[in-house]
C-alpha cells in the first residue's frame, strides 16, 4: 500500500486562515480609526486650553475678553484682534470666542474638523464642557453659546471644573 504524503495546506485550512486574518485586520483598522478620532479631539482640547490662557492673560491686563469667530482665525492659525494675539490654533481646528457686552464674561469653543467633540469653556465658573458632534463638521459661531453671567452650557457635559 502506498503512503500518501501531505504537501501543504488544504483548501479549508487556507480559508480559515484568511478569515482569521480578515477579523484581525478589521479589529486593527477600527482601533486605529478610534485612536485618530481621540487624537483629533485632544488636539481641539489642547487648543482650547491655550486659548483660555491667552484670553485670561489679556483679561488680566485689559480687564476685558476678546471675542472672535472662526473666520477671524488666519490660515496659519493666528488670531489678531486689536492688541490681542493668539497663535496656537492648529490645522483643521476651528475656534470661537463669545464675549458679553460688558466684556466681563466669555465662552470659548473649539472643534477639530475630523473630531467628534466640541469643547467649550465658561469663564465665570472656570469649567470646560463638551458635547458630541459629527466627524467632518466644522465649528460655527452659533455652536458656542452666548456669554452671560448664567450657566451658558446647559445640556453640555462637564469635562473639568475648578473647585
Written description of the protein model:
This is Prepilin-type N-terminal cleavage/methylation domain-containing protein. This protein is of the alpha+beta class and 163 residues long. It has one domain (11-161). 32% of the residues lie in helices and 23% in strands. It contains 1 helix and 7 strands; from the N terminus they run H-E-E-E-E-E-E-E. It has one helix at residues 11-62, and strands at 79-81, 84-86, 93-99, 106-112, 117-122, 127-132, 157-161. The strands form 2 sheets. It has a 5-stranded antiparallel beta sheet, covered by helices on one side. Strands 1-2 form a two-stranded antiparallel ribbon. A hairpin with a 4-residue loop joins strand 5 and strand 6. The longest helix has 52 residues, at 11-62. It is elongated and about 100 Å long. The N and C termini lie far apart (86 Å). The model has no long low-confidence stretch (mean pLDDT 90).
Question: How are the SSEs placed, and which strands pair?
Answer:
Blueprint: H1 11-62, E1 79-81, E2 84-86, E3 93-99, E4 106-112, E5 117-122, E6 127-132, E7 157-161
Antiparallel strand pairs: 1-2, 3-4, 4-5, 5-6, 6-7
Tally the helices: 1
Structural class: alpha+beta
Low-confidence stretches: none
Which sheet architecture does the biggest sheet show? Answer: 5 strands, antiparallel
- State the helical fraction: 25-40%
| Run of helices and strands | HEEEEEEE
Q: What number of domains?
A: 1
The 3D shape can be described as elongated
- Adjacency order of strands in the biggest sheet: 3-4-5-6-7
Mean pLDDT: 90
Rg result: 24 Å
* Relative strand content: 15-25%
What is the terminal separation in angstroms?
Answer: 86 Å
What is the tally of beta strands?
A: 7
Amino acid at each position: 500500500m502506498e503512503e500518501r504524503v501531505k504537501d501543504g495546506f488544504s483548501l479549508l485550512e487556507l480559508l480559515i486562515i484568511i478569515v482569521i486574518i480578515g477579523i484581525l485586520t478589521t479589529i486593527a483598522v477600527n482601533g486605529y480609526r478610534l485612536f485618530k478620532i481621540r487624537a483629533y479631539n485632544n488636539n481641539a482640547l489642547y487648543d482650547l486650553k491655550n486659548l483660555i490662557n491667552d484670553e485670561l492673560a489679556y483679561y488680566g491686563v485689559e480687564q476685558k475678553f476678546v471675542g472672535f469667530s472662526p473666520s477671524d482665525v488666519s490660515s496659519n492659525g493666528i488670531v489678531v484682534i486689536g492688541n490681542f494675539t493668539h497663535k496656537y490654533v492648529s490645522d483643521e481646528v476651528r475656534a470661537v470666542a463669545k464675549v458679553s457686552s460688558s466684556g466681563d464674561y466669555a465662552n470659548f469653543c473649539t472643534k477639530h474638523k475630523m473630531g467628534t467633540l466640541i469643547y467649550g469653556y465658561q469663564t465665570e465658573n472656570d469649567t470646560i464642557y463638551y458635547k458630541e458632534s459629527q466627524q467632518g463638521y466644522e465649528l460655527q459661531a452659533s455652536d458656542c453659546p452666548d456669554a452671560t453671567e448664567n450657566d451658558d452650557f446647559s445640556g453640555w457635559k462637564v469635562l473639568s471644573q475648578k473647585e
